[in-house]
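User: quick one - fold this with NDP bound?
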Amino acid sequence: MELELADKVAVITGGSIGIGLAVARGLAREGVHVAVCARNGERAVAEAERIAADFGVQAYGIAADVSRPQDVECLVSEVKKRCGGVDILINNAGTGSKETIMDAPDEKWQYYWDLHLMAAVRLSRGLVPLMKARGGGVILNNASICAKQPLGYEPIYNVSKAALMMFSKCLADELISDNIRVNCINPGLVLTPDWGNTARKLTAGKEIGWEQYLEQIAKDNAPIGRFASPEEMADFFVFLCSPRASYCVGATYYVDGGWLKVVA
Ligand code: NDP
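Assistant: Sure. Structure tokens for the protein plus NDP:
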């Protein structure tokens, strides 16, 4: 299938590793020019350089903490300056949490609210005018299966991702008349380097190896019995970015190996 993405411009938050990097590389493979942002600007720049070398597109690494409004403003102006415009926004930056509602302070709630929801709100506000100027665009919000099916140890993550999912629906309604398609993706288990690091820590000095530990998590949760690779998750993002997905609007797609236990 020809995805008709060549020479589009995409901004990917959290694009320096994991799912975001796989999406950036997947888009670049289709000829999309990419701007990847992360707090660690050096890593973002290094990955952007690798993308440019591997796929022959323009690729920029930009340092930004998207939980901070001032950084989002700088990111928007950098994108304007370097890319001239934008067609695709992937709101991907995010991370898990661990707390109880009774013990977590307001500051922690605020940080995750800013990271998972307000970053997407602020970036959409900043970049949608550039999409409108080009006659349309695509916004994908990377939430999580936890937006619908909570994990007990991370209520703040569950709640803030649920808000991102609803935001996607509301934004989709608001922007479809401008030919901007907004959708949300709820991944299940995706084997990013961070999962490997956590598993290594948790199994240090134990009989069970880290790979076995991860295999067990997958078997216990996802009917498919394994993690997704970041690349197989990215393929779905890339398709949704394509005009070939032109009738996909305002939906939340579960890409979870069957983990969701209800019909959504
Ligand atoms: P990783 O931890 O592998 O990567 C996170 C990326 O986001 C990095 O590039 C990181 O770079 C960046 N990032 C983190 N915080 C910020 C911030 N405040 N501002 C800008 N960039 C930031 O994450 P994953 O690839 O695992 O996850 C990506 C998204 O997918 C997340 O939103 C996550 O909730 C979601 N998800 C992941 C699943 C999984 O199993 N992996 C399952 C379901 C959802 P830096 O540290 O330099 O800022």
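One thing worth noting: Helices lie at 18-29, 41-55, 69-83, 106-133, 155-175, 193-203, 210-221, 230-241.
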